[in-house]
Amino acid sequence: MRFITSFITVLLLAVSALALNVNIARTSSEVQTATKPKPPKVCDSKYNKADLAQKQYEAVADFADLFVNKHDVLTAFNRWVPGEYKQHNPFSAQGRDAAIKFLSDSFKSGTKTSKLTFFAGQGYGMQHFKMSSGNTTFAVVDYFKFKGTCIVEHWDVLQTITGTELNPIAFF
Question: 57 near 120, Cβ under 8 Å?
Answer without folding.
Answer: yes
